[in-house]
Design brief:
The chain is an alpha/beta fold and about 160 residues long. It has a single domain (about 5-130), classed as Alpha/Beta hydrolase fold, catalytic domain (Rossmann fold). It is built from 4 helices and 6 strands. Helix 2 packs across helix 3 (about 105-115).
Length: about 160
C-alpha cells in the first residue's frame, strides 16, 4: 500500500494512503470530526477491487503526526482540502479524482468545489454539516448539536 506524507503549507503533516485498483477511477476519501478514515472501512473497503482509493485523515485525527490543535479552523480546513487534492495528484499521479466524504470533510469538499469548480470529477457527500441560515427554523437546533459535538470532540 503506497503511503505518502504530505506537508501542508502550515507544516501539518497528512498521511495519504493509496489502496485498491490503481487502474480504476480514483476516489479521495475522508471522514468527519472526531473520527478516522479506518473507522469508515465498511464504506470504502468494498470499493478496493474496482477503485483507486486515496484515504486520508483530517489534521489532528487518526494516523497523522501530531500538530497544534489550535490550527483547526474553517479557513485552515478548507486550505487543507485544496492542498490535499493537489498533493494526492503529485504523489500518485494525475487523473480525474472523485470525492467520497462524510461530515466536515464533505463540507470542505463542497466549499472547494464551489470556489474552484472542477477540483473534483464528482462528489458523493454524506451528511455535510451545512448550517441553516440565521432565522431558519432549524438554525438553533443545528447550533446546539454542533456545539455539543465540538465539546465531545475536544475531550478526545
Amino acid at each position: 500500500m503506497p503511503e505518502q506524507i504530505q506537508t501542508l503549507s502550515d507544516g501539518a503533516k497528512i498521511v495519504l494512503r493509496q489502496i485498491g485498483n490503481p487502474d480504476g477511477p480514483r476516489l479521495l476519501v475522508s471522514h468527519g470530526t472526531g473520527f478516522a478514515i479506518d473507522g469508515f472501512r465498511r464504506l470504502w473497503e468494498p470499493l478496493r477491487s474496482s477503485c483507486d482509493l486515496v484515504l486520508f485523515d483530517l489534521r489532528c485525527h487518526g494516523g497523522n503526526p501530531p500538530h497544534d490543535p489550535a490550527s483547526v479552523s474553517r479557513v485552515r480546513l478548507d486550505a487543507d482540502m485544496a492542498e490535499i487534492v493537489a498533493g494526492q495528484a503529485l504523489a500518485f499521479g494525475l487523473k480525474p479524482t472523485f470525492g467520497l466524504f462524510h461530515s466536515i470533510s464533505a463540507l470542505m469538499a463542497l466549499r472547494l468545489e464551489t470556489t474552484r469548480p472542477g477540483s473534483f470529477a464528482g462528489l458523493v457527500l454524506m451528511e455535510p454539516p451545512a448550517v441553516p441560515p440565521a432565522g431558519h427554523a432549524e438554525h438553533d437546533a443545528f447550533e446546539t448539536g454542533r456545539i455539543a459535538l465540538a465539546t465531545r470532540s475536544a475531550k478526545r
